[in-house]
């Protein structure tokens, strides 16, 4: 995971969340009673608040991730693999390679082997080279 630099506000929010989540339910309800509130109404309001906060936090994280991904795509550093779709799969299957190795995989046809052998023989044929230079020292 990337190193995230947190601001003081971020750390304060995390600490408050931690304290709220670690406080026993009974203690929170007792505090609501002490403040003259209905515990059931307080609990319902807190559940709604926490649910909304989770949703908003998730949406914010998703927006940040999308912005980071777009930035990386524009910089050319994103490592994103596109998922196959039926159209892409059809294009892949319809592709006809134009090189010998691609056509045959790792195996060469007999015709290809014969052509390669003929080329090699021509290349190493001493009579094929015009050698006007003599080695005189």
Characteristics:
137 residues; 6 helices; single chain; mainly alpha
What radius of gyration results from the CA coordinates? 36 Å
- Alpha plus pi helix count: 6
Unreliable runs:
none
The secondary-structure class comes to: mainly alpha
Whole-number mean pLDDT: 78
Largest sheet: none
Strand content: under 5%
Order of helices and strands: HHHHHH
**How would the global form be characterised?**
rod-shaped
Helix content: 55-70%
Number of strands: 0
**Ends apart, CA distance between termini:** 69 Å
Written overview of the protein:
The structure is a single chain. With 137 residues, this protein is mostly helical. Helix content is 66%, strand content 0%. It has helices spanning 8-22, 25-34, 39-75, 86-94, 100-104, 110-123. Helix 2 (25-34) crosses helix 3 (39-75). The longest helix is centred in the middle third of the chain and has 37 residues, at 39-75. The mean pLDDT is 78.
Summarize, please.
The chain is mainly α.
Write the layout of secondary structure elements.
Elements: H1 8-22, H2 25-34, H3 39-75, H4 86-94, H5 100-104, H6 110-123
